[in-house]
Task: inverse folding
């Protein structure tokens, strides 16, 4: 008689438990990443160009002359004026610090900003785990930026900080020059419009005016954003009762072995927490896994029993 290979019930249960436990353990481990992200004000270059009338398909000599006359002024910008005017600096700061009470410190920072002509951009408080973490982003007048940083640093123990400034004087001057040229072009088109009698010429000038006015609005919007960024500096403060939960914001080109060691230690702690969490989930689900294993074993026995009867 040929002997059939059979799986013992306890082997099936143990195999099923290990399989489900491995799945739960894998779910419990998540990639370790930075909890915080930094936002910096974008102040990239912005250029515009007006397309000559001939390239638009119009054969209007006066329109091309208007473009040429207006853009000849682009090279006539008074450099001495640019050098003598006050520099336009966008100031941005990040401070990472340990405090005794995160909600109270966050409220103190927001109240200080509002009392000194600033406003709150974002506030976030996370009370998960055993520690309390949070972040506050405020904007304050540039003239009080340094005083605000000193005030904030006195609220706790500073772990790291990063204060930077971006000079946009040349960019703002270039935009102002383009704006003046476009407005001069707009005036010339309006003058041409008064002398236009043909419908085709009127429509052509109107289209060019719409193009010029659209670029004027975009440049004015960009200049307004840059001006507001210069007038109101941005400060982001990361708060936590646990220093190991704070991000390192003193970014730079220099090698910082202590910062690397701290990040590695945080990653190790995060991995350990994930492993422990996975084990906790496994222990909690052991009764459920055992019940499923028993049910699987009973179903297997019943299946074998019916097969033998047949």
Result:
């Amino acid at each position: 008689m040929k002997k059939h290979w059979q799986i013992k019930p306890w082997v099936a249960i143990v195999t099923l438990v290990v399989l489900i436990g491995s799945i739960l353990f894998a779910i419990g481990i998540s990639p370790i990443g930075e909890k915080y992200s930094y936002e910096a004000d974008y102040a990239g270059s912005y250029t515009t160009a007006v397309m000559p009338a001939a390239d638009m398909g119009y054969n209007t000599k006066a329109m091309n002359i208007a473009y040429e006359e207006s853009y000849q002024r682009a090279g006539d910008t008074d450099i001495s004026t640019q050098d003598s005017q006050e520099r336009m600096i966008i100031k941005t700061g990040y401070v990472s610090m340990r405090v005794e009470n995160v909600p109270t410190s966050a409220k103190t920072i927001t109240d200080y900003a509002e009392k000194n002509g600033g406003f709150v951009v974002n506030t976030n408080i996370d009370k998960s785990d055993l520690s309390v973490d949070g972040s506050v982003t405020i904007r304050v007048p540039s003239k009080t930026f340094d005083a605000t940083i000193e005030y904030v640093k006195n609220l706790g123990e500073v772990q790291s900080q990063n204060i930077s400034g971006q000079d946009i004087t040349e960019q703002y001057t270039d935009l102002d020059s383009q704006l003046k040229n476009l407005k001069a072009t707009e005036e010339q088109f309006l003058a041409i419009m008064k002398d236009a009698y043909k419908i085709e010429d009127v429509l052509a000038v109107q289209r060019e005016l719409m193009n010029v006015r659209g670029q004027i609005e975009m440049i004015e919007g960009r200049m307004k954003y840059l001006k507001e960024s210069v007038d109101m500096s941005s400060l982001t403060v990361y708060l936590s009762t646990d220093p190991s939960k704070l991000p390192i914001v003193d970014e730079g080109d220099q090698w910082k072995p202590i910062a690397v060691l701290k990040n590695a230690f945080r990653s190790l702690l995060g991995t350990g927490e994930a492993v422990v969490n996975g084990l906790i989930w496994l222990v909690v689900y052991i009764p459920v896994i055992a019940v499923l294993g028993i049910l699987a074993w009973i179903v297997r026995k019943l299946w074998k029993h019916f097969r033998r009867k047949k």
In short: The radius of gyration is 34 Å.
